[in-house]
Amino acid sequence: MFTEQVQPKSTGRAAQRERTRAGVLEAAQRLFAEQGFRATTIRQIATAAGVSVGTVMAVGDKDALLVAVFDRRIGAVHEARADGREAPPSGTPAARIGALVQPFLDMFGADPALAREYGAILARGTTRAEVFTDLAVALTAEFAAVFRDAGLGADAESAGRAAYLAYLGLLMASPSLRTGMGSIRDQLEDVVGLLADRDSKDPHPKSI
């Protein structure tokens, strides 16, 4: 009976913590979008969320909050693809991989200033982005499947990794995400085309 009484309290506290975290992230996302990442303070986020500065810091510092905001955005895009709301791409390997990354390019391009701050945080390596890391694994596997369909066989895995690294490098290096989304996709498709064409013509392909 004691266990039955304690468990709902524990569950209730966990639910409250999750609601508090969600409120902090909503406030952070709104202020980051309205004021910019650098101009927004932890105290402003606390006021907007109706909590203390200590409560905000328990969720994370500014870097961690921005990573969490993008984790939510990336997760939503990935979920939309996974549950079938996004039609599976078709066409050449380059076109298929371009279509696979387009929803993410659209998401990053919608708020280029914040996306650049997010990229800088990831580059520093001080804050781990769980969803971004999981997405890297998923996209690499999807890219490899495209190359496998194109007949690369054993080299599909390494080609998938190379294509993902090219995508990541282009994304992080883009000086203007809003104007550069089309360029990123075009350049990625060029890389994919070279990978697919090279291995399809090489009778003894080497691992990348």
TrEMBL record:
GO molecular function ontology, one term from the record: DNA-binding transcription factor activity
Polar residues bias: start-end ranges: 1-10
Domain HTH tetR-type, chain residue ranges per copy: 18-77
Assigned keywords, A-Z: DNA-binding
One Pfam family matching this protein: TetR_N
Gene3D superfamilies named among the record's database cross-references: Tetracycline Repressor, domain 2
Sequence segments annotated as region (Disordered): 1-20
Superkingdom in the source lineage: Bacteria
PANTHER family: HTH-TYPE TRANSCRIPTIONAL REGULATOR PKSA, HTH-TYPE TRANSCRIPTIONAL REGULATOR RUTR
Protein name (Swiss-Prot/TrEMBL): TetR/AcrR family transcriptional regulator
Organism per entry: Mycolicibacterium brumae
